[in-house]
Structure formats: structure tokens, C-alpha cells
Amino acid sequence: MSADSTEDRILSVLEEDAQASYADIANRADVSKPTVRKYIDKLERDGVITGYSADIDPKKLSGRSIALVGIEVESGRYVETTRAITELDEIETLYSSSGDHMLMAEIRAPDGNAVGNVIADDILSIEGVTAAHPSFLQERLK
């Protein structure tokens, strides 16, 4: 088997279950535990694996809202504006996007009003941000 296919199988297992043990990953990827450890160490060093997380079903969070916010930024201020947005504690995750919005931010807050406050008080106050469009997650389907 090629190194690429081994790497892909290991990453596939981790994407399905970030808490899988090395033994479980080895079994599911059809490699040895030392191979799993070697690849995961390399993938972490190379920045391919940037962290491990839990998938959350927003409908099961009592008193919590999760919103994806599309953010528009002046192109001439993109780098400094993006850097300022990443500094906001309220932003769980930030992605660059080729879709309808330049950036997509994930915000988790106690309720919709709190999300609105983060947008109005924090995101829109950053120089270079021209618009923010929230979409509230209702139910995880897959």
C-alpha cells in the first residue's frame, strides 16, 4: 500500500471518530499501531491535523445557539481584518470561503440575542468588515 493511501485511511478514521484509540485506528485502517502513531505525529507536525473536536447537535444543547455567520470584508483590508476576527474569543471557528461570503465564522452563544450582540458589537465593529449574515443551525442531520 502507498503512503498516501495509508495516510488517507488514517485520516478517514479520525474524521469519523476523533476519539478513536491507536488500536482502533490501526484495525480500521489495516495498519499497525506504530504506523498509526508515526503518521499521526507527522500529520500533527505538518499542520494537517490542527486539533481534535467533538461534533455537537445544536438541537440538543439546552440554552445554546450555534450560528454560522457569513462575513464580508473589504478586499484591501482582508489580512488585517481576518487577523482581528480570529482574535475574538466568541468565534469558535473561522474559515475562508469561495462561496457567497469571504469568511464563515462559527459562533456559539447562550441564545440568538447573544449571537446578535457578538455580530453587532464585535464583528461589525472591526474595521474592514462590511457585512455579517447569520444562519442559525437548527438540527444536525448527519
Automatic annotation (TrEMBL):
SUPFAM superfamilies documented for this protein: Dimeric alpha+beta barrel, Winged helix' DNA-binding domain
CDD domains with a match to the protein in the record: HTH_ARSR
GO biological process annotation, one example: response to amino acid
Protein name: AsnC family transcriptional regulator
NCBIfam families: TranRegLrpA1_Halo
PANTHER family assigned: LEUCINE-RESPONSIVE REGULATORY PROTEIN, TRANSCRIPTIONAL REGULATOR AZLB
Molecular functions (GO terms): sequence-specific DNA binding
HTH asnC-type domain segment(s): 3-65
GO cellular component term, pick one: cytosol
SMART domains: HTH_ASNC
